[in-house]
Specification:
Blueprint lengths: L2 E6 L4 E6 L8 E6 L6 E2 L6 E6 L5 E8 L2 E9 L5 E5 L12 E6 L5 E7 L10 E6 L15 H12 L3 E5 L9 H5 L7 H17 L3 E11 L1 H12 L5 E5 L10 H8 L6 H6 L12 E7 L8 H12 L5 E5 L9 H20 L2
Length: 352
């Protein structure tokens, strides 16, 4: 169960959102107060978020699916919803349908992945591959919900000839306790093992993908995973790390210590999870970007990484975004950043 949305005492019903049977979706369910007669209320495959009125009999359904932008419906329990707002249609944009995939972690756990292939590729031609990663407890990447800005950017990259892949490794949300707690005491190792294991299986399943031209990119924890991957694996030829945590002693204690414990009690875990400590092992072409006023992952994380890379004699590219916070917002800055990411991968994976 994800959350309780409403309780109708008069009808003896509880309404709640959960991902029963498929962690990639969120659906509205009801159940009797005694735990009986559980049933699904929402019908369309995808992601539903429900906001109930005080009477617990009427609600607004906020729905989207992977290539269906958000729309709002006004609903009564037990009756069809009436659409009250819809996003602009994307039917004319020729968006490419991603493929949902499944893999197995080393402990047998199912990992959910997603692959976006370019709309056309010459037979026999190898396709460069970009792994988009988040990988941490605060974010799920593979989900049947509207793709948003990042997904549309990936659509653009696919039209340029790239394949885009994502997999939610152990430690990401919307799964059971065992899955989430697999990363306890360390950040990076288990996550990278799941990422590379899924990539190996992906490459075997889709031989048109080029093992020698694999890139990786991510933001926030995904930026950390990009740095960890480039310093702990030689699989990746290029990477883009945006607003990364580079040393977990520099991040919020309420978040970090939930998984890593206190530094004095888990010194090895903190050391092994530090990207700056492994700067001398950097492999592949790195582009690092960070907002100078980041109020979440503070700018000092990138400063520390830059210092370590320079001392290790490693070449890289760095782009600071003046006065920008964690999301690097604003049309001009976003446009600049995403063009820079595209240019980096075109140069390093396509030789443009």
């Amino acid at each position: 169960m994800i959350q309780v949305d409403a309780v109708d005492d008069s009808a003896g019903e509880v309404y709640f959102t959960c991902n029963k049977d498929d962690p990639r979706q969120e659906q509205l369910y009801s159940v009797k107060l005694d735990g009986s007669a559980m049933q699904r209320i929402s019908r369309e495959e995808g992601t539903h978020a429900s906001t109930f009125a005080d009477d617990s009999k009427h609600y607004v359904d906020d729905f989207s699916a992977i290539l269906t932008p958000p729309r709002l419906g006004l609903c009564s329990v037990g009756a069809p919803c009436k659409e009250v707002w819809n996003s602009r249609s994307v039917n004319d944009f020729g968006l490419i349908q991603p493929q949902f995939l499944e893999f197995k972690a080393e402990d047998g756990t199912t990992l959910y992945g997603e692959l976006l292939l370019p709309p056309s590729a010459d037979a026999g031609t190898k396709i460069p591959l970009i792994d988009y990663v988040y990988g941490g407890p605060a974010g799920q990447v593979v989900k049947n919900a509207w793709v948003g800005t990042t997904g549309l950017f990936h659509q653009l990259l696919a039209r340029q000839g790239f394949a885009i892949f994502s997999v939610d490794n152990r430690g990401t949300p919307a799964r059971d306790r065992k899955f989430l707690s697999a990363i306890k005491g360390q950040f990076g190792g288990i996550e990278l093992k799941d990422q590379t294991s899924a990539l190996d299986r992906l490459l075997a399943q889709f031989p048109q993908l080029d093992r020698k031209r694999i890139g990786i990119w991510g933001w926030s924890n995904g930026g950390s995973m990009t740095l960890y991957s480039l310093t702990h694996s030689d699989l990746f030829k290029a990477g883009v790390s945006i607003a990364p945590v580079t040393d977990w002693r520099l991040y919020d204690s309420i978040y970090t210590e939930r998984y890593m414990n206190l530094p004095k009690d888990n010194g090895k875990g903190y050391l092994d999870s530090s990207m700056a400590k492994a700067a001398d092992k950097l492999h592949g072409a790195l582009l690092l970007a960070h907002g100078t006023s980041d109020d979440n992952v503070h700018f000092q994380n990138s400063v520390q990484m830059i210092d370590a890379l320079i001392k290790a004699g490693k070449q890289f590219r760095f782009m600071p975004y003046p006065n920008k916070t964690h999301g690097i917002g604003g049309a001009e800055d976003r446009n600049h950043l995403f063009h820079m990411i595209q240019d980096h991968f075109e140069r390093e994976l396509m030789g443009k």
